[in-house]
Design goal:
Blueprint lengths: L10 E8 L1 H5 L6 H13 L1 E9 L3 H14 L2 E5 L10 H9 L3 E3 L1 H11 L6 H5 L2 E3 L3 E5 L3 E7 L2 E4 L3 H7 L14 E7 L3 H14 L5 E9 L2 E10 L2 H17 L8
Parallel strand pairs: 1-2, 1-3, 3-8
Antiparallel strand pairs: 4-5, 6-7, 7-8, 9-11, 10-11
Length: 255
């Protein structure tokens, strides 16, 4: 597949976490923050929505179809392993109305890794993916992920996902790099909420402003985070936030 050209525009994605173990609390999800940071820092892409669903075919089909229409890309995690409840690949095939078959390349990779004698039926299952998919190679446990249309399927185990994700980059269009700047103020959110709303409204088209309470070193404060693809916009907005703090006699917290 040829390399995708870079286009400087805003691109958003959704993450669909699939797994009963996440919903039950037995397993803590670590993938959302990692994928979000990786996309933002390496691809200029923002995660706009995250959903967590169980290993139920109807729910996977419904959510995959809905999200793939709303977003440029949908990242799924979990459900592409060898066990009976790993049904993500087969469910996506049904959602897209394509066949779910052994992929020759994946089959060859897995057979070579395990050896013919140890390449049993559960392991062979990991070579079955929707027809028309491209492989996302896995340097740790070998079993590949895949991409079909705008749906990118990755494993749920964080260590394995982290080792694979750089292989996703060649398949996706990159957006503009997102720059950010934080101003830490020793105050309460309620004391600056109205003024921040006015500043956000002024820069609504190209800047996102978030406020996050913190408690550090005995200080109660608010981290005001300004994000934009244009550095000059951030500079102007940060100055306005700092002027707001000056007018209200709010001190910055540097640590």
């Amino acid at each position: 597949m040829p390399k995708v050209k870079k286009f400087k525009k805003k691109i958003s994605v959704a993450i669909l976490i699939i797994g009963n173990e996440i919903l039950s609390g037995r397993t803590q999800d670590l993938n959302v923050s990692f994928i979000s940071n990786w996309l933002n820092n390496n691809c200029g892409i923002s995660v706009t929505e995250v959903r967590i669903i169980p290993d139920i075919e109807k729910k996977i089909i419904y959510n995959v179809l809905e999200l793939s229409k709303k977003f440029k890309y949908v990242f799924t995690t979990g459900g592409i392993g060898p066990t009976h409840d790993d049904i993500t690949a087969s469910s996506i095939a049904k959602a897209l109305n394509v066949k779910y078959e052994y992929n020759k390349e994946a089959y060859s990779i897995l057979e070579k890794y395990y050896g013919k004698k140890e390449f049993n039926i559960p392991r062979k299952k990991m070579a079955k993916i929707p027809v028309g998919s491209l492989l996302i190679h896995n340097p740790v446990s070998i079993a590949p992920g895949f991409i079909i249309k705008n749906i990118i399927c990755l494993p749920g185990v964080p260590l394995i996902l982290k080792s694979m994700i750089h292989n996703v980059k060649k398949y996706i269009i990159k957006g503009s790099k997102i720059h950010s700047r934080s101003i830490n103020l020793i105050t309460l959110e309620s004391k600056i909420a109205l003024e921040l709303k006015k500043i956000q409204k002024k820069y609504l088209k190209n800047i996102d402003i978030g406020s996050y309470p913190f408690f550090r070193l005995g200080k109660i404060g608010v981290a005001v985070v300004v994000r934009s693809s244009l550095k000059k916009n951030i500079f102007k907005c940060v100055n306005e936030v700092k002027n707001l703090a000056k007018i209200k006699k709010i001190k910055e917290f540097n640590y």
